[in-house]
Amino acid sequence: MTTSEDYVDAGEAIDQGNLSFKIPGGDVAAPVTAGVNYERILNAREEPQNWLTYYGAYNGQRYSPLDQITTENVKRMVPAWVFQAGTTGLIAGASTYSFEAAPIVVDGIMFVTGWDGWIWALDAKTGVEIWRYKHAVPFDVSLCCGNVNRGCAVAQGKVFLVTANARLLALDATTGKMVWVKTFGDVRAGESATVAPLIVKNMVIVGSSGGEFGVRGHLDAFDLETGEHQWRCYMVPKPGEPGSETWPADGEAWARGGANCWVTGTFDAETNLLYVGTGNPAPDFDGEVREGDNLYTDSIVAVDADSGQIRWHYQCTPHDLWDYDSIAECILFEMDGRKLLAHFDKNGYMYVLDRTDGTLIQATPFVDRITWGAVTRDGRVTPKLYPEKEGEPVHFYPGPAGAKEWTHASYSPKTGLFYVPVQDTGATATRRRREFKESIPYWGAGVQVDADDMTGSVSAFDGTGEEKWRWRNELPMCASTLATGGDLVFAGEATGEFNALDARTGELLWQFQCGSGHHSSPTTYTVEGRQYIAVPVGWGGWAEGFLPGMLGAGHGSALFVFALPESA
């Protein structure tokens, strides 16, 4: 029999982030973010040497006018440096990790987030680590689709990121030390966070994750100086609010309705609107417990940046029964004198809307195989195949990861083309009704994504939805594209290749094997006049959802940075 005298005090737990020599405050980054404010981000493309915000600019185009690397010389591009993030210890959640970030660069300093609460500050010229910070995340946090993080934001001397346990952090960008931390989700209910924050005016905008656990999605704004909460916009209306008639009048289906905003929105200062995509309804596949169109799930939602009020919406997949989140980026562009928005939805259709009022201009397919239903050019939706009967399997295209997952398309105003990473993969769903229990997955079906008979491409479309070229790949394309002024499109493959394509023809011009699959967002910048292309490489996350045949492939955890050889 043991007594209290048999136990020895184990002492204080050691912060894992301090076991690397690069502790917060140990080294100091140049104060480059002190002058980053709303005006600079608003005019971000006027300083192409930097990548100041998640998409490079508020318009979501993922385009840089940098043109030192061109179609003529890209074949000479070589690795300039590699940063090994590495993995240490256990990670939170019963899931795998993935390196999904978009590196931010300000005047020679790079900020890049990782999974499980990590962020690093690096010398953008050499890759030398300046500081690192790790936020402690509970091991039992509920995560549906991998322990991931898509990036950070910078402004007024601080760097902002979210953590898997739904915290928004503000760190001193020179030292990595904590300035403030706020909670904006209930992890006990299954809420989490993966989104890259967006700075708009004096606010930090973030959205929640957790739709697979039956939570009510929301978008939040915080004061970037103090962390004070400014507003919250719920994406599922409660009884009596506009849109509530699209949910059952009795019960609490609306309260667990999903519609999470887990991908960064875009912003137009002239309309003062944030354009945000929302996630699936819950349960994902069992529609009988949530009859109606289920607003504002699977929608493009325009939110007033000052008040947090919804100004208009467009629903891509009413009463979703296929897990077709509409979280994809909303790319802002102009055509024929109109202010437009392009959105490549999981359901396989490209939507072009008037971004001033949400009027649909056209809907056109961007993937070959679409069997779940049909959407006419004027937006009429006809469902065809879905898990209707308990225990009866139904196969459909695209699968629940979509014809394009969260990974982003890009747009070149120079060519007038959108460059889309396409996934042509099907899945089988078998409806399995499940009683709602807080923090327990609430899918409503068993799902098996096809492990063969799949393909992918980088496809180029103009603003009318006409396909101009297609670079074909044997496997789905699971990473964001990047377009540059050098008439290049960069795109990574699941098997590790990082490619440069001719933006006008789709011809493969250059390729480098990075040793692990791509599921991130490359960015570009210059330091001392030399252009660099940066891409995080680390396969994983929800691989069983978009490419289950590579679920066992090596994760990787490296940031590769490429450039032309330095002049002799």
TrEMBL record:
Molecular-function GO term, any one: oxidoreductase activity
First-tier enzyme category under EC: oxidoreductase
EC annotation from Swiss-Prot or TrEMBL: 1.1.2.-
Keywords: Metal-binding, Oxidoreductase, PQQ
Cofactors named for this entry: pyrroloquinoline quinone
InterPro entries in the cross-refs: PQQ_b-propeller_rpt (IPR018391), PQQ_MeOH/EtOH_DH (IPR017512), PQQ_rpt_dom (IPR002372), Quinoprotein_ADH-like_sf (IPR011047), Quinoprotein_DH_CS (IPR001479)
Limits of the Pyrrolo-quinoline quinone repeat domain: 51-361, 476-533
Source superkingdom: Bacteria
Similarity comment: family membership: Belongs to the bacterial PQQ dehydrogenase family.
Full protein name: PQQ-dependent dehydrogenase, methanol/ethanol family
